[in-house]
Design a protein that fits this description.
This protein is an all-alpha fold. Helix content is about 95%, strand content about 0%.
């Protein structure tokens, strides 16, 4: 949001600048926008990777818990059969 406000203020001031200054300011604004977009894309990728790791760990924990329950049930069933 701050970048957008800065760009808007810069755009208002551009009307009094030379074409070269206007061009340089536009290029700087484009660079800022590209950096912001790259940062957001990287943050989204990092969040997705963290989510995948967390869900994978939870799935593994549930699988181990289910396996323990199966083992206990099998042992209890063996005790009942005897």
């Amino acid at each position: 949001m701050i970048s957008l406000a800065l760009i808007a203020v810069s755009a208002i001031g551009l009307s009094a600048c030379s074409p070269k200054a206007q061009n340089e300011t536009a290029e700087a604004a484009d660079a800022i926008t590209a950096d912001a977009n790259a940062t957001m894309i990287e943050a989204a990728k990092d969040t997705d990777a963290a989510s995948d790791r967390a869900f994978g760990a939870a799935e593994n924990a549930m699988d181990r818990g289910a396996e323990k329950i199966d083992n206990i049930a099998d042992a209890a069933n063996g005790e009942i059969d005897e």
